[in-house]
Fold this sequence. Notes:
The chain is an alpha+beta fold. It folds into two domains: 2-112 and 255-265, Diaminopimelate Epimerase, Chain A, domain 1 (Roll), CATH 3.10.310.10; 119-249, Roll (Diaminopimelate Epimerase, Chain A, domain 1). Helices cover 22% and strands 40% of the residues. It contains seven helices and 18 strands. The chain has an 18-stranded mixed beta sheet that branches. The longest helix has 15 residues, at 212-226. The termini are close together. The model has no long low-confidence stretch (mean pLDDT 97).
Amino acid sequence: MRLFQVDAFTESAYGGNPAAVCLLEQDRDGQWMQRVGAEMNLAETAFVRDRPDGAYDLRWFTPAVEVDLCGHATLAAAHVLWELGATDAVLGFETRSGRLTARRTAAGVELDFPAEPAVPLDQETVAAEYPGLAGALGAEPVRVGRNRFDLLVELADEAAVRALTPDLAVLRHYPLRGVIVTAVGDPAGSGADFVSRFSAPRYGVDEDPVTGSAHCCLAPYWSERLGRAELTGYQASPRGGRVLTRVAGERVLLTGGAVTLLRGELMH
Length: 268
């Protein structure tokens, strides 16, 4: 089986978010995929299998669990398929989050994903359901929301997001996938419309470098706040990565670049 490592949401190697992409030649069960995901030890490993209808089955695994939605590994999978000679301008993927598509554009790979807006939470709810949140983040939240995956926490400014050193032991106990921390962008810093960071310690990812699925929440949040459908997000992890976003009703279009770093063969 062919195996690739791709840096996604970046224009250069060793940036963005690395994902492994495994092209399956036969059906494999989830237990085997999980073992491969743990062996790769990247935030996500994508498993791609041809379908008779011309689309692809796609599953994503962290080192610890299978996930319902992943942006950077989907971008990486599409990038690999086109590098190997796929001729379709739009690639379709059947996933746990329904049909997703990837399209080649001048700006990179455009993913068509479901919007995952956050429902605002009041202070009493936050205190009851996520005790010690401000202490765990080391910063006072300005606003807090929740979608089906994650907690969304807005901080005062970009500097506060960049300075975070979260207490992962506390975050690990919250009953959710992860915590997205965000703020409006600083024109003299990232130059983006908004910035973010993302931690999912319960899923084996202490800090994800660039999280496409988090931008399914961030894009509608900041689109409403800033009054624009098209925005640029910057995930301020140590590797960093830029995500172009556009809200289109109940969908979010995410665009970024990709670079293949490794090609190999999985022997077992």
